[in-house]
Design brief:
There is one protein chain. The chain is mainly alpha-helical. It folds into two domains: about 190 residues, Growth Hormone, Chain: A, CATH 1.20.1250; about 190 residues, MFS general substrate transporter like domains (Growth Hormone, Chain: A), CATH 1.20.1250. It is built from 18 helices and no strands. α14 runs antiparallel to α18.
Length: about 425
């Protein structure tokens, strides 16, 4: 029998159903939301592949140019819970379109930046877009689809993350190598313009529910499934990024793996992540707690096994692909967890999730860097794997409900 929270879920009304004419293309709306997540993640991570030319073009060091990666994550962590409060009564389709227009402007400003200060201003705007899009889009699968399809829709929305890593960032990096880093940001501005138009055309009206206030988040954190689930997610994501941020130096130590082979392996990791998003989504739609438990145990074990596998190219290759497969299910499983823990406050739950997730990314990268500097790259998987395994008891101590196929989800918007 499904477990239930020991205390009542906060009594927060769900989103109000849309009114007006129905649009018989719900999957088109979900696909466009996936394109939106693809756009924000590609924009967030694009400077990773352009750090050297970007720093040279603006006359700054690689470390200073790296702030273009760090700053958006920190701003996103702060803006994710604040945006639902600021846009408390606005139609969510309008908010998403406005955020994508802001993302377009930020990319154009990045392309034209004459100084690092201007670039960092543009990247701070990117952070606002990241936090806002995740706070709103992450939970829309349950509004656009009936309960038995909501898990699949949520997985598709989150697939934009993995596809950005596999396709978006490499394509932007390639364009930057051919035409210069400014043209890479210009091209991305064109992509986000198209996605904005598609959002406006494909999404139905999505009226806001009961306004979200600071008290909403306090009540959510007192819900056992949320209050205990978020620390588990924080440990898992921090451990992953502590190890993955410095995976290249770890792989460079494996015998007979040249630079070209490592790049191919990282592509394989990304493709496995796409598959893992849908596999994790399918399991999480039935039992998000079990899905997150398996992911935490699997991720911790895989990362730790990279240490003894360091002398074997075959073992390192297999573990890296398995790592991508396991980690691909993290975001969608955690989102399903929070939706089941607080079905009446999905947007507020998504906002908390986005804030914690982006904070964990920054903390993980920082932890991995300090570990690599103090103990060497070989020690990074040990720290990352240990943090991921600490999420196992955190998940075991939490309780949440399985999603109810009979329909305790938020009222569906007809797309």
């Amino acid at each position: 029998m499904p477990s239930t929270p020991s205390t009542r879920t906060p009594s927060i009304p769900t989103a109000v159903p849309a009114t007006g004419s129905a649009r018989p293309r719900p999957w088109a709306a979900v696909l466009v939301l996936a394109a939106a997540t693809f756009s924000v993640v590609t924009t967030e991570m694009l400077p990773v592949g352009l750090l050297t030319p970007l720093g040279d073009g603006l006359g700054v060091s690689a470390g200073t140019a790296g702030l273009a990666v760090t700053l958006p994550g920190l701003v996103a962590a702060a803006s994710a819970p604040l945006l639902p409060i600021a846009a408390r009564r606005a139609d969510r389709r309008t908010v998403l379109c406005a955020l994508l227009l802001l993302l377009t402007a930020a990319n154009l400003l990045s392309a034209l930046a004459p100084h690092i200060a201007v670039l960092l201003l543009a990247r701070a705007l990117v952070g606002v877009c990241i936090g806002g899009v995740w706070a709103i889009a992450a939970g829309l699968g349950t509004r656009l689809m009936p309960p038995h399809r909501a898990g699949r829709a949520t997985a598709l929305i989150f697939s934009g993350i993995a596809i950005a890593s596999v396709l978006g960032v490499p394509a932007g990096t390639f364009l930057g190598s051919l035409a210069g880093w400014r043209w890479a940001f210009t091209a991305l501005a064109g992509v986000t313009t198209v996605v904005t138009a598609a959002l406006f055309l494909a999404l139905p009206p999505l009226p806001a529910g009961t306004p979200v206030g600071p008290g909403t988040f306090a009540r959510l954190l007192r819900t056992p499934g949320v209050g205990r689930g978020l620390p588990a997610v924080a440990l898992l994501v921090t451990g992953h990024f502590a190890a993955y941020t410095y995976v290249r130096p770890v792989l460079d130590r494996v015998p007979d793996l040249g630079a070209g082979t490592v790049s191919t392996l990282l592509l394989g990791y990304g493709l496995a992540g796409v598959a893992g998003t849908f596999a994790g989504g399918a399991l999480a739609a039935r039992d998000p707690r079990r899905a997150l438990l398996l992911i935490a145990a699997g991720l911790g074990a895989v990362v730790l096994l990279l240490i003894p596998a360091g002398n074997s190219p075959a073992a390192s290759t297999a573990l890296l692909v398995l790592w991508g497969l396991v980690y691909g299910g993290v975001s969608v499983s955690a989102q399903n967890w929070l939706s089941a823990a607080a079905p009446g406050a999905r947007e507020a739950g998504s906002a908390l999730f986005a804030g914690v997730f982006n904070t964990a990314i920054a903390l993980g990268a920082f932890t991995g860097g300090r570990t690599a500097d103090a103990l060497g790259p070989a020690a990074v998987p040990a720290v990352g794997g240990a943090l991921a395994l600490l999420a196992v008891p955190a998940v075991l101590s939490a309780r949440t409900r399985r999603p109810d196929p009979a329909g305790d989800a938020a009222p569906r918007e007809r797309a």
